[in-house]
Design brief:
277 residues; alpha/beta; Rossmann fold; 6-stranded parallel beta sheet; 12 helices; 13% strand; binds 2-acetamido-2-deoxy-beta-D-glucopyranose; signal; hydrolase; EC 3.1.2.2; palmitoyl-CoA hydrolase
């Protein structure tokens, strides 16, 4: 798999580099609305500011299944990693970290990613112009519907029973459904030195925008902040543990549209680079 070879090749090069100058390699994961090329400016900015290499990964559109073997990022080595993901890429990157109990990722940056799911017309219409949020559950919460990545993190607050029954992705990585992997998903996240969740009210695509911080709608479509939701209060995936140790950083930045987070130099310098140093 080309994707895997790139990761390994790159990691070996960076392993040596890290040893000498103590910068960490950075893996960047793009979102669903664009390809790896959309991350060029973010990569350039990181390289020019931190004198280190960045790597953009090309993702398949479907994130239905994540096999840790596809992502063996030298788990036995002592190379530490920073990882940053935009939009769907941030969800994919987070899930990947969760499947690696012995990972050596130090910093995970989620750049306007629907960590608690997505439920909104703005986003839906960018990908499926003819579908309506209110009724799309009929399609998404089915075996066939789950073959699209969006359906994997579609979280209809009024159809939670169907969400849990059909979604093959989000309720698992958020430990809303317990399996034999749930404890690994939790401990893997608590290995991080820092988790940075970036989002903002003018994003325009992530709905509710607080999903970028693990906040989400309740059954009457009121947005419940992340620290009042069960995923946090019950420490289901280790967010509370991270917060208690000062390792959870919540960034709410206004006036940034979804497609600007990774392109706007000021945003990159202000909210991303400081966490990679
Ligand atoms: C990682 O570091 C530890 C302690 O410094 C060492 O014992 C171990 O052999 C190293 N592992 C690798 C794969 O280099
Ligand atoms: C646990 O994770 C492994 C590896 O990703 C997977 O093969 C297995 O099906 C998972 N088990 C459950 C119960 O989800
Ligand atoms: C949702 O949250 C609001 C505000 O906390 C509350 O008034 C409402 O009863 C909640 N709705 C449900 C269905 O839990």
């Amino acid at each position: 798999m080309q994707f895997l070879r790139n990761v390994i090749k790159w990691n070996l090069i960076l392993g040596a580099f890290t040893f000498i100058v103590s910068y960490k390699p950075v893996i960047i994961m793009h979102g669903i609305l664009s390809g790896a090329d959309s991350m060029n400016s973010l990569q350039r900015e990181i390289e020019s500011q931190l004198v280190q290499f960045g790597k953009r990964l090309e993702a398949g559109k479907r994130i239905k299944r994540l096999f840790p073997n596809d992502w063996k990022i030298a788990p036995g080595s002592n190379t530490s990693l920073g990882r940053s993901g935009h939009s769907q890429g941030g969800l994919l990157a987070r899930a990947t970290i969760q499947t690696m109990p012995n990972h050596n990722v130090k910093v995970f940056i989620s750049l306007s990613s629907p960590q608690a799911g997505q439920y909104g017309t703005n986003f839906l219409h960018l990908i499926f112009p003819d579908l309506a949020s209110r009724t799309v559950y009929e399609l998404f919460y089915s075996k066939v519907g789950q073959l699209t990545s969006v359906a994997n993190y579609w979280n209809d607050p009024r159809k939670q029973d169907l969400y849990r029954r059909y979604s093959v992705f989000l309720p698992y990585i958020n430990n809303e459904i317990q399996t034999s992997n749930s404890s690994i998903f939790r401990t893997a996240l608590t290995r991080l030195d820092k988790m940075v969740l970036i989002g903002g009210p003018d994003d325009g695509v992530i709905t509710p925008w607080q999903s970028s911080h693990f906040g989400f709608f309740n059954g009457s479509l009121d947005v419940i902040p992340f620290n009042e939701r069960e995923i946090f209060t019950s420490d289901a995936i280790g967010l509370k543990t991270l917060a208690d140790h000062g390792k959870l950083v919540i960034v709410a930045k206004p006036f940034v549209h979804h497609l600007s987070w990774h392109r706007n130099r000021n945003v990159i310098r202000e909210v991303i680079l400081p966490h990679l140093i």
